[in-house]
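Provenance and format

Records in this collection were gathered into a single text stream. Each protein contributes a sequence line and a token line. The two records reproduced below are adjacent in the stream.
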Amino acid sequence: MGELSGLPSTFTTGQARDAGVHPRDLYAARDGGGLVELSRGVFRRADAPAAAYPDLLAVSLRAPRAVVCLLSAAAVHDLTDEIPMAVQIAVPRGTWPPKLDHPPVEVFVWDPATFELGLDSVEVAPGERVRIYSPGRTAVDLMRMRNKLGESVAHIALRRYLARRDARVADLFAYAKALDVLGPVRAAVDVLAAS
């Protein structure tokens, strides 16, 4: 794989081209089993350590400004047992939403003023990180989207968040206030605290 040796474990066609790899060599390496194509134009070395979340890795390289959110983030943070049918990502309003064939994605367009609120990252493969909302922001977002994604999913996520050692109710309320769902979040926290 000659010129490919200088590339990271996961890379795009553009990165390979910038490193001097001809597309025919790139696709020959894929066809020969040296590379795995995670998504159109996103490759991972076959000899690289296994990725815990290859779909999130592929999406993050295809849509670097996007942030993993809602059920996809809840699954990573162990706030749900739901298995999302598509990678759920958020992009700020006013940006062009990414179009991906594989893996399937569901794009949410959110207010730029609160887009960076609760932004975190998680390691999805050794040494490779993706942007994701924090557990507290994820629980609040699920409460905010409870009419679309399900009331029970939101309440389970909130309960699991509050049971975590690193749970911070003050952060939860700050996110809820900024995202205009303080009333429902406070009411749900009160119910969960009383039970």
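Adjacent record:
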Amino acid sequence: MERPRILILGGTSEARLLAEALAARRDCDLLLSLAGRTEKPAVQPVPVRIGGFGGAAALADFLKAGGYHLLIDATHPFAERISANAAFAAEATGIAAIALRRPEWQCVGGDRWREVQSIPAAIAALGPAPRHVFLATGRQGAHHAEAAPHHRYLVRSVDPVEPPLALENVDYVIDRGPFTLEGECDLLRQHHIDVIIAKNSGGAATYAKIEAARLLGIEVMMVARAPASTVTAVETVEATLAVIDHLFPPAMKRGV
């Protein structure tokens, strides 16, 4: 057969590492797609397209027009819409699909977690008494804090929150992980944080805030992931490569 054509829906460190590993093998044609929500995305090792597709049907059309053989959903665990679109497009086109999903964080001894189903639910669970809240969910959901203006918020995001929140008591930190335990402890102490709102994203890059909360005895409102899509999921880059080798054995890639 011809060299496999693979579309990776990215935006995560795992997507970049997978693209890097596949590029080094030089036995397939790759395109990495980024949603374009980050103003200064990290440098990628393969050709990149930036921007949405215009919905599930449009993604299916893109896959058919490009002659792709495999779709890999390596988006953020909370990018529910694009994951749903990916599942639809794979089924509509009949091409193979894999979801690369890092494992969720697990509550361990010393953690003070309260699991919630959404950012608005977390904001509501803060209660009536004013609190110092570290809103560590990124800029996309930051506006939900406006529903409870009596708290003081620290909002961290890769890009600025635009427009700024309609709140009197809010501070912003523009930063990109990975973060260190020492740095996170300093941040939490500096802002007198007594509760963190975080998504259960998994991975090592942003786990330090969870470790810091455990060390300092701070409560964490942990936003749970939505139910997984119907696409076959794997948890590591290595596992993804193994599935690709199963779908496209080396002899097939060489056209033998």
